[in-house]
Structures are given as C-alpha cells and as structure tokens.
Design brief:
The chain has one domain: Rossmann fold, CATH 3.40.50.2300. Helix content is 42%, strand content 20%. It has 5 helices and 5 strands; from the N terminus they run βαβαβαβαβα. The chain is globular, with a radius of gyration of 13 Å. By secondary structure, it is of the alpha/beta class. The two termini are 26 Å apart. It has a 5-stranded parallel sheet, sandwiched between helices.
C-alpha cells in the first residue's frame, strides 16, 4: 500500500457500462493504493471534472454508444495524453492492434488480475510522467 497524502495519490478513472465490473475494478485500484472514480460511459467521463485530474484511464472496450476505442480517439483528438489501459471480455487481435496503434498501454482480459493491473498502472504512470 502506498504512503502518500490523498492529494498526491494518482486518480485512476474507470469507464465500464457494467456496474459490477466498474465497482470491482474500482476496488482493485483502491486496494493497490490509488484513488478510483468510476463512470458508466465514455460520455460521462468526457464531461466530468475528473477528466483533467485523471492520471490513468482503465476502460472497457465494448460499450453502447461510445466504446473504449472511440473514447481513446476522442481523447487523442483533443490532445489528451492520458495513458489508457483497456479491458475486454472478448479480446482479439483487431482490438489489440487498434488500441496499440493509438498508444494504449495494454489490453487486458476480464476478469482483471490485481497484480497485472497494478503492474500496468505503474507502467502507465511512469510513461505519463515522461510524456508531460
């Protein structure tokens, strides 16, 4: 567990239309020492005050209206460099290729493993620090 003041703990935003998956991912993120905030859709995240506070985004790939890859495209189009970790119950090479081509940190299969998620969040935060 991290020993930081609340204001220095990175915020990991989670976008998943499945409430139980969103809550479970939030618990995992908090258990490994980060702050977590969940969103039911990409639109909710894009219109939130947390958008500019987010240090890393964990997003489901397949969601109604705006999927994770479209969310990634919209973020990049406005110049956002938030590192993105994708999660999906239906991994396939096409998704991975598109995600990585646009700069994703990784594409993880659901259900998420805490150790793997922690490793990639740390990697994303390190990458994000060097991008700024």
């Amino acid at each position: 567990m991290r020993t930081r003041s609340l204001h220095s703990v990175p915020l990991i935003s989670i976008v998943d239309d499945d409430a139980s998956a969103r809550v479970a991912t939030g618990r995992l993120v908090r258990a490994i020492g980060f702050r977590a905030f969940g969103f039911a859709s990409g639109e909710d995240f894009l219109s939130s005050p947390q958008l500019h506070e987010t240090s890393c985004l964990v997003s489901d790939v397949q969601m109604p209206r705006m999927g994770g890859l479209e969310l990634q495209t919209r973020l990049r189009a406005v110049g956002s460099r938030i590192p993105i970790i994708f999660m999906t119950a239906f991994p396939h090479d096409g998704i991975r290729e598109r995600a990585f081509a646009a700069g994703a940190v990784c594409v993880l299969s659901k259900p998420l493993d805490a150790s793997t998620l922690s490793q990639y969040i740390e990697q994303a935060l390190s990458k994000g620090a060097t991008d700024n």
